[in-house]
Amino acid sequence: MHNIVNTKNFNNCNFHNKKLSKLFLQEEHKFKPPATVYDRMSGYQVYNDVYNIFQWKYMSIVWLGYNIYNFIKETFNEETIDDYFIHGWFNVLDSDEFLHWHTHFKRFGECREKENLFMISGHYMVDAENSATIYRDNNKEFSIPTENGMCTIFDSKLEHKSDFKKDGLRTSIAFDIIPKKECTKRKSVRKVLCKLGDIK
After folding, report:
1. Could you read off the pLDDT of 89-115 as tens digits, one per residue?
2. CA triplet 188, 192, 194: central angle to 5 degrees?
3. To the nearest 10°, the Cα dihedral for 52, 53, 56, 60?
4. Alpha carbon distance 151, 139 (integer Å)
5. pLDDT by residue (tens digit) across 125-143?
6. DSSP letters along 133-177, please?
């Protein structure tokens, strides 16, 4: 069952993760709603539609984009992969916060269902050790412990949630890769999508 989830550890992650962690803590207040908004735990970045970290011109974001691109390229044999779009955001969870069961498919799944296009989601762990991500496929659950510097990609229909056992903050990045902008009706998201081939 784990073959529906692919993982890879990126080289030189310690240096860049320190930079990324500092950056996201600086930016967090702009996007993070109060815990009561939308009846979600406060760690969930519900305002992620209004930004895309892969449009930010920071050295460590460029490093991350390069590694994610190569990971996807070597995992999927898709000739037009450079023309796919990517949307990325960050999550910062405190020790009493977590992400509920969710999928990313509802955000971009419309054209995939109609046109048999593939869409993947993923996350990258910045500072998240002593936690895990739990996945659920056909009502069967399995857990993958997180490692700082580990990137995971999976089918966007796969349900998942965070299991947080870390003292302090759990910082990670999530992203979706979609075949074309028309896969979402959200104008705010379409404005911040960028070509996957542009982040390599």
Report:
1. 998 887 777 788 888 888 887 777 777
2. 145
3. -160
4. 24
5. 999 988 889 999 988 999 9
6. EEEEETTEEEEEE--TTEEEEEETT-EEEEEE--SS-EEEEEEEE
